[in-house]
């Protein structure tokens, strides 16, 4: 595809900035002036490469996505005759909810009328603009829209039209069109039409539950014979022979579907203008054009033009009772009453059905000016931009939702930008796409961007939003936007209306007023601003100013889409590194990231939010009816304020609900009103605790799932709902009772609200996604408005309830109403296994880390609001039967995964929350850190040298007898950075107090000691040889242990040391490398860091391999280990949930028997990448627009992202660069990528399989005194040789592990676990189904080559088993509950049974305590060291009941015989080839392994013994193989 002229000009301008450098190969160092002058050249080069690559990639995407219809006959018209030719005959349809005759309704309509068919939408546009193939359509079949237009009374002239009179009032027209749609669906689904029409389904048009359309699925060609008869109805004669011709016949697939959209025929007549001659000339010019129907039109009086004004009330079915009001007699109301009681959304839905054709003509007339009609498939930048916008919206779930974009909406927005010349005709698709993103993100569509958060008046908020809200009108061709507004007859009609004297001055201002409420979800004081109507919508009017194309867009959708558009702008403009998307170091990398982020990366509803909650809708209709009765008959009779009416206790629930939602039902419709109310009421309550909240809508299904759509269309699919990623509501005509087909009536009735998506196991619930702000979510007090603000106080009480919003006195002396969230909200649940309820009381279980890692306060607020306003009510509960099934409790999905990393908080009915010493993991970590600080202070204080003058000589001595003082104590253990899955518990024999049963204590520490390192002060007295250096370090450790023992015997060295010395307990074990001691109940392992040793190794001129390995080992242990600890600790401190994600991921890795293969450090780096690859700062000029790609705020969201990163990252082609503090520059990133490509090689097989690089992986890290920015003075060109960058950056944590086979297995397991957990969230997690993601199935165990069963006496915690994990939350007593985390900690604290000892006061057992007891881990380490060439070993470090093995394929290939490598070998059994005489014997190898592990392994089982196929077979002739196959098939038949 050729580049646009302006794009080429930009590329040429960028290329002119590039100065060729011929001496780049001869110079290796440059001065500062040359390096600074080359910076613009590099930026220009990167910009050029990024723009070029992005243009080429989008060109390829467009080329593969366009779909054109041949032949181009989209503008033809058709007709459809109704079922009866007798005009006197009529059809009668009834609608009676719950068989109640008082609410039944029916109407007759005449037959014999003709329905006109017109293609609309992308089907009718020139060049099929917006129509794409399946792969660019969200994996959904293309939908061709056809308008079915009915006549009105005035179009026929004889008063016999289908609609007429005042059918536009009170849903009369909507009910008529729905019943007509059902009738036509029944006619089309008759047996005689099935061979031509196929399957017929009912659906909602554009997600509007008030409008019914038909979806026609054509029959497959291979299902119909030449005579038109279905082949499925014919009986098959005989069996098909093997290899016959019919089996090779390619089965036909569905290519498209047709959607019938019902509307009213639009009769247009030109209205004479009384303007200037210039205006008249323009009008004549464009009115004479046959393809331009944008001039002022009149509708012959079926719907008066005044009824299309937005301040009119055309739906008063729930607020009026008399027949005159029901018929719509107009009363002269003042303007404020018109605005409050108007129904602009209802009126707009009527205008949509009238403007079906004019909308298509509006788009086509714009396309005619951009394309050449002579072309067979005309395309333009409009077509390309629209397709790019469609793909962008589909990837984010923004298309085809009930409150989101449609392809027509995107096309209309482009029409406005083209007609206002914001997009020029010569612009390319990338520039037009960028202009659209800028237009959508920078305009204040809702008027919320400039609202003062301190404003507490509803009128002031609404007035401020109206002033700042943007509204646009599509200009008529040849006129500007202002001229179109001035000459519009509808605008003049509004100005001439006598009822608008005190209202908005212009029609555009009237639209702003009618589409604006007092909602302030972004304000922290929103809970005190009254609002009971959620009618906010953006405004983009057609040239006649009667139709708002954006009226369906909800406020939550506008906020989310603007944030996504702003993020897209930053990617396009080259700021992807600030958002974490780019990898830097070249235009290719950045451009690839931009294209991938914009058009390839899927980020739909189920991956966008931190928490998901289901709101049961079963009790909503009862509460709705209660509200209508208590308010005197309807939603339109109360004002939007808090009200001055006092409610008694009897009507408290209903009155409270009516004050915050339900007053916009007549306007929005029943289902849309409930959906918006749940979102907006929760937004008011949560305030700044959340950054986004949105309801689940259609268009957000799994985009990778075909859903059986491609092979559908047969007879068996005609009675099933359509299943695809759109998840739209579809009801098949066949197989559905007639009574259920008329449930599409637009009136409220007593039915529960309809979910926006297709029926699921949880279809009676509304799923809400919440993105939590971790900085404000833990605020426990919501303070109300001042006492003098009566309106705000009433609104505050109406939102929170009288019991929750209580009067409180604050320190500043103010007495106001406030809500305090320091107690858990209890809700009944049906069973102990549903949604995490405890056994016995039926309450939702609360965990100790909920507020920190799962937004516990946010969850409690959601529970309270939903219970108060949507699912509770004493009247409702009284009407329910005693045996009725209670709805599931309102709680975050997958919340019970916290039970693996945190304990249960017991909430007694009349007491404050309490917990056991094993329940709070954060408190356990803090206790360890407190002990570390105390130990560090003790070592520094008692190793400080003082002068000894008692002997008469000045001599430096210390209390511990060390010749050098300890300069620094550095932590290295994961438990000192909140990363330990099971934090250590103080042991009574190691200087701590008893935490459990004091009668028996464990004689061993289950787990590893806490690793720390000490650094001594600088001195020149260190030895100069490596052996002497090691001996000196060992002597330091020996003296440290002896000094502590001596101080304890002497009674301490003062009051400061007395308490610390009493905290030392247990044995002190010294080895040449470390010292194990017990302090405050914890086991500590101390190592010595000697910088002099590193300097000595670095100064060697010709170091041996042993010296190089020793130097690398010391650097990794002492320097990189300390830097890694500092980096991860900073991430966990900044993001509270990050450490919990690391611990849960560690549990997942161990559960799948990958322990020690994927280390804890590697897990920490991947989680740090998730939390720091994006920025939380808002860098937009508009502070109200946030960033979408923000770090997760809950453990569930973070863990799902961890699984997604592990399973989707291209480990073979891309390194994973983790840089939380921006220490790695863009040039360093380029070096990392260049070195990675050089190591990987062309076949992508070399180097570490998991290539993770962090700031500590620089080769010169031992020279750093902390962190260093590398490459700031370097300017290495992209073509630098690989040997020049050798050992600059290289992974150290993942240098050896995991292996390629292990990484592939981990990625596959991560994908399966992610899909399973996502399906649990999507379908509603029932019971403990999520536990399957943390277990190995029996089938997966058989996939191993062999299993070694470990003796149960060595299994301390069987609850962490990979096959039978304990996930139950049970009560050990009437007031105490234990979860899996607490049970595991208790078992680990108790230790193995054989090593438990009775604890007596007078018997000292400290000397017999083991600092580390991990026998199975030691066995696996030995097996890997000895038999690593033959097999890969897997185990679960927390419950090592099984050790699994997988044979290495290369170990069982025939080899030449050699006496040196003859161990475990046997002769080849079958055919000898060349010198391949022997092969590995699995019997000998397993016998050796069994003998080696006989002390721990009880038995083993081999699944793959490598015996049947131990030697290659000779290739047999094809004829012989065919003969054998025939003989085997004949034997099977016999």
Blueprint of the fold:
Blueprint: H1 5-16, H2 32-65, E1 78-81, E2 90-95, E3 105-110, E4 114-119, E5 143-150, H3 153-156, H4 172-188, H5 194-197, E6 199-205, E7 208-217, E8 257-264, H6 277-287, H7 323-327, H8 335-341, H9 344-354, H10 356-368, H11 381-395, H12 407-419, H13 429-442, H14 458-468, E9 471-473, H15 481-487, H16 489-496, H17 507-514, E10 539-541, H18 555-572, H19 587-600, E11 611-616, H20 620-630, H21 652-660, H22 665-668, H23 670-686, E12 690-695, E13 730-732, H24 738-741, E14 765-772, E15 781-783, H25 790-800, E16 806-809, E17 815-820, E18 846-847, H26 850-853, H27 856-871, H28 874-879, E19 904-905, H29 921-942, E20 946-948, E21 955-957, E22 966-971, E23 1000-1002, E24 1010-1016, H30 1026-1050, H31 1055-1062, E25 1069-1070, E26 1075-1079, E27 1082-1089, H32 1091-1098, H33 1105-1134, H34 1138-1151, H35 1160-1172, H36 1195-1208, E28 1216-1217, H37 1226-1240, E29 1252-1253, H38 1300-1323, H39 1338-1342, E30 1346-1350, E31 1370-1373, E32 1376-1378, H40 1380-1390, E33 1396-1398, H41 1415-1427, E34 1431-1435, E35 1442-1447, E36 1465-1467, E37 1478-1480, H42 1482-1492, E38 1497-1502, ...
Parallel strand pairs: 5-8, 9-10, 24-27, 28-29
Antiparallel strand pairs: 1-4, 2-3, 4-5, 6-7, 6-13, 7-8, 11-14, 12-14, 15-17, 16-17, 18-19, 20-21, 22-24, 23-33, 25-26, 26-27, 30-35, 30-38, 31-32, 34-35, 36-37
